[in-house]
UniProtKB/TrEMBL annotation:
<protein>
    <submittedName>
        <fullName>951_t:CDS:1</fullName>
    </submittedName>
</protein>
<dbReference type="InterPro" id="IPR032675">
    <property type="entry name" value="LRR_dom_sf"/>
</dbReference>
Amino acid sequence: MSAFMPHLILREVFTYISAEDSFMALSTLHSCMLVNHHWCSVAIKVFWFKPFRHRSPLLIHTLLYSLSSSERDAITLVQDISLPPISHKPYYDYPLYLRDLDYWAFTKSIKAYIARMTRLTTRDDDSTTLNGVRNRMRDARKEYEDLCYVMSSEIIKMFIRKGVKLYYLRVLTWEDQLDTDEYLLLLKPESHSLISSIRELELASCYQKSIFLSTLAKICCNIRSMHLTLANWSSPEDDGKSEMLGLAELVKAQKSLRRIQFWTFKHYGANVEYVLDAIQTQAESITEMGFYDVNFTATKSLDGIAACYNLEQLTFKGCDLNDNVASPLVRADFPRLNKVEVCPCHNNGLKEWAAWRNLNISFRNRGNLSAGRTSR
């Protein structure tokens, strides 16, 4: 039997390992790279398909080898930080394999790399005074933030220069505002070619995100799957209207959205209606929809969901509902619906409807299941 394992089989094995997204999986892939040149050539591509699953300054160190001279100069102009020697070119062009980017892990990796490569040291006599220490710490902090921003910018420029196109984008943060320069950097006009091809989007944020959402809507129109955890904890007087309008823009901009999940939309009140209305624009393409900890009590009805006649899966868990709001779902016709999960806080009628649909699901292609339901 030949000891050589075909490329396609190796790729399937490594992809299966990579799907776990754990440190052990990363370690295993790294070990596979060391077996021989053939294994390495396959494992490298799988590993760098989505390298930023965790914070890793070593990944940034590797990417810095691919910077051009002008990109390196832009970084060292901010601070004379030590960068990998330009004469040492990597054997593989790692950025070319990047398709899945966790932007939060990417930025945290850059910050970890800079923290490792720089040290705060006293440089003048007035640093021994209290005001001197404060001034120097303030200047050092500003220099650090500028360096983080510029390094992020230059690496993104390198991605664009090499023609990288992302298919999956994750921006998961509970501590930052999406509308800050750090995150809006990803949406600058010169970055459009990098993210315009995104097919899967995952966002999680609590604070100021309306600009991020509305700007993303102008760039990405081919998203097929959205996983949105957008809590509104900014301030008591902020009802999140601008954020829901931005999200509505993003939903409407899509050409063929198939799957969408909403998490922790508890504090948006009636403004959720903007998103529900936007969902109707995707009625023909959406097949899976899930709502988790969403408050619908302030909305008028779920007509936007009822309009999605091609739904195959529908989930309500931990949602606040009432019979009037949910009534459009009970009356609607979903000929393809084959999976319903309902655990709302206050809607026995919807529970009964879901149970009834599951009991009669084998008859879904025989016309309406009830005279009270409308035909399409």
